[in-house]
Amino acid sequence: MQKCNNSGGTLLEKHLVNKLNFEEALQGLASTSINGKVILQNDTELTAKINIVGDGGVYIETNPNRSKPTSVSRILSMANNREEIGNFSLTLKGNYRQGRPEVALIRIAYLLAYSTFGFGFLLNFNLQMIRDQIKSPKKKLLKHWGIISSNFPNENLGVNLIYEPKELKSFLIVFDLKTRNRSIRYGVLLPGPTDPGIEIYNWLMLPENQKVNYCAKKIPDDDYLKKPELAFASSTYWNLLR
Asked: Is residue 4 domain-resident?
């Protein structure tokens, strides 16, 4: 379990945090910083940290120890001779790998559903693909990430069931992630135990389904883990909505 938790934190959550931070820095939100390079007109490059301060102000902190010695010498010479730097450009690095933030969101949704229903939720063969994707974040096993951007109301927080269109019938996990500057609400689809199963991801890949209207019903909040009669509640609700 320790290995699994460490791996998830290193390979997934770190990339998600870095992506959110990168997006906020690009938006000019205060108290964010990203790594990059300062490039002067004479092709001098310095590794730098770009800090967003105040109302969109930028403070650039260079790092000579991580820059080329020739570039450091050149910038010191310019400073000593009081030369004007003139125009310069910045290159920015997000410090996250493509796909890792998305798999991190899938992992959060999977763990939230499991923490709600317990082992009864895992009696779903179609979730094996989800587990494989979480364990292999370097590969893209799912055709579509199943992440929906929408203004979900507060009553949708938690586990929901999409029942229309039937090609998209699935569990919809809605949750908030909070950073220093904002709160972001996500909706992540997880396949159910019967059809359409993992075909929901193939269906979402079709061009005409990129923006789709759907009907969802919130699964009532309850203490599913402490009531034996509710051990298979996720399957019960799934079968009720046909």
From this structure: no
**Amino acid occupying residue 189:** L
Verify that 34 and 133 share a domain, yes or no.
no
Distance between CA atoms of residues 128 and 228, nearest Å: 25
Same domain membership, residue 207 and residue 150:
yes
The C-alpha atoms of residue 210 and residue 212 are separated, in whole angstroms, by 6
Answer whether residue 128 is part of any domain. Answer: yes
Query: Phi first, then psi: what are they for 26, rounded to 5°?
Result: -65, -30
Per DSSP (E only), the strands in the chain are 32-40, 45-53, 57-62, 88-93, 147-148, 158-164, 170-178, 183-190, 215-218
80 CB neighbour count, 10 Å cutoff: 8
**Full-model pTM:** 0.86
- Write out the residue range of the structural domain in which residue 61 sits: 27-93
Distance CA 178, CA 36 (A): 25
206: exposed, middle or buried (Cβ count in 10 Å: 0-12, 13-18, 19+): exposed
Number of domains in the chain: 2
Give me the tens of pLDDT residue by residue for the chain, a chain 242 residues long.
444 455 555 779 999 999 998 888 888 777 788 888 888 876 788 888 878 776 667 777 877 788 888 887 887 787 788 887 777 777 878 888 999 999 999 999 999 999 999 999 999 999 999 999 999 999 999 999 999 877 899 999 999 999 999 999 999 999 999 998 889 999 999 999 999 999 999 999 998 877 888 999 999 999 999 999 999 999 999 999 77
Peptide bond just before 191 cis, omega within 30 deg: no
Instruction: Give me 129's structure tokens.
Output: 């693909």
Q: By the 8 A CB rule, do 89 and 44 touch?
A: no
